[in-house]
């Protein structure tokens, strides 16, 4: 039974679609038909939101590992993580049954549902979302136990992320907003069916399972030697095959993909610029 649901925006303070959706639901309430569910809407990092930046000192969405939560917090975001852990947790013992954290990305990932585990609830949820929104992507990040992730959504008993793009940082696009709202309400529709034990038989669905982050080619001083190849730009969740171009080097060479077929995503994500992450890999699977 999913009793308590919390929607969070502003985990990243410049991701305007989730921020605006949460603000609108706080001001106007949720659409009619969802009144039976106990839903809370929350803006996580208000200081970052006011400044229209991802974070003030550190990425809030990496602060929720068991190790960091047991350490004395120093940065503003680490302190906020500890406060939220007290308020909603402690992690592992929360009374939030489902925490839905809303993000957007500068990558062309469309509407993506990120799940961290593939138990019956999350499998059925993924299949339902894919059935209701056939163009949506399901990204599975189960490379480690869900609780070991540093994501804010892991404070809930169950935690998922909605990730929609492409939307530049710091501004709101109506198409991104619409997809975000649609996916959020689709998740609530599923919860309603799940609570009534009325989930229909759902066909297995295609998912993308996270592999690893790929770093830009760098020189010895960590200076970039390349940019994303134009043939790869905006091709999130499309197959990248052996021999396909990946990087356009500034010396006019190009670098190709030498491995087996993968499905890149978070391609050229602005927030990963400092980390030199060019994209993440995934393999296609059935759930
Ligand atoms: Zn984000």
From TrEMBL:
EC identifiers of the protein: 3.5.1.15
The keyword Glycoprotein is assigned to this record: no
Keywords on record: Hydrolase, Metal-binding, Zinc
Residue ranges of every copy of the AstE/AspA barrel-sandwich hybrid domain listed in the record: 204-282
Top enzyme category: hydrolase
Required co-factors: Zn(2+)
InterPro entries in the cross-refs: AspA/AstE_fam (IPR050178), Aspartoacylase (IPR016708), AstE_AspA_cat (IPR055438), Aste_AspA_hybrid_dom (IPR007036)
Gene3D superfamilies: 2.20.25.160, Zn peptidases (3.40.630.10)
Domain Succinylglutamate desuccinylase/Aspartoacylase catalytic: start-end pairs: 4-190
Top-level taxonomic group: Bacteria
Keyword presence, Repeat: no
Protein family membership: Belongs to the AspA/AstE family. Aspartoacylase subfamily.
Name of the molecule in the record: Aspartoacylase
Organism: Alteromonas gilva
UniProt lineage: Bacteria, Pseudomonadati, Pseudomonadota, Gammaproteobacteria, Alteromonadales
